Amino acid sequence: MREEVALEPRPVALREIKDYAVLMEMAGSYLCEEIILAKVANGIEKNLEFLKEYISALRKQFVGKPAHEVDITSPYDEILDLVKTLREPDQEDKEKIREGEIGLELKEKTRDLANALQELIEGIEGKTAKYTKADLIVQAFGHLKGLVHTLITTYKLLTRIVACVALLCVVVFVILFATMETEKEVMVKVDEVRSLIETKQVALAKVMEEISRVKQRTEAMESKEGELDREEKIKIMELKLKAHNLSEKKEKIQFEIDEQQKLLDQNLKKIEDMRRKSFLKRLLRME
Fold it and tell me: Residue 26 contacts by C-beta under 8 Å, 6 or more apart in sequence?
């Protein structure tokens, strides 16, 4: 019996590898000591081991052979090669680390691995088909066919034709009426979207406030007179990474707000159209 694994396109291990990449890209000049590079390499390798087991478990969820093979091995091995570079860097590698080139390369390979993982999960999710309204309509006409057959074998020709037409009209009317969206249903969606937008706007304000605090703290530490000790350098790296993650979170929330606003506008326009149309036009989906 297969053990179901949660389909998570961005597992924690993948996000942690990305954090290491961002850290090396922004603060590579602080990371060139071998003890720090070894620590980063160990952290990335530990997350890679988790991802290897996770990917293996995902592949087992395919029933039969997938439509096409997803190349996850290449980006995985490329990240593993970068781990080896961090463990035994030569002078040229250290210079690339200082300039943030290794961090940028790690971020690109992590993105490739994330895209491959997303493609694999989409393949798994695509193995089961959901019933659509079209399927339900086909089912309804399937039942109608059985009733029509009974009528044909029971009543005279004219009676059967009239009954079939009447039954067909009733089924079509029921389907159209059942699937016709009402103004009340759309208003419920409008209220839900407005509430969601307000919640996300509050969250966005908090994130922007936190970004401002982190930047002020970072600037204060960087402007400190004298040479920074190791703990202060590490603290600055942590603050920069936190500011980067907060900026990504802000962009994500803003994108979600924009998408919800589009949905809200669509629903409001839908309500206007519904009020303008007659019942018959709404039933028959006429413009």
Answer: 100, 103, 237, 240, 241, 244
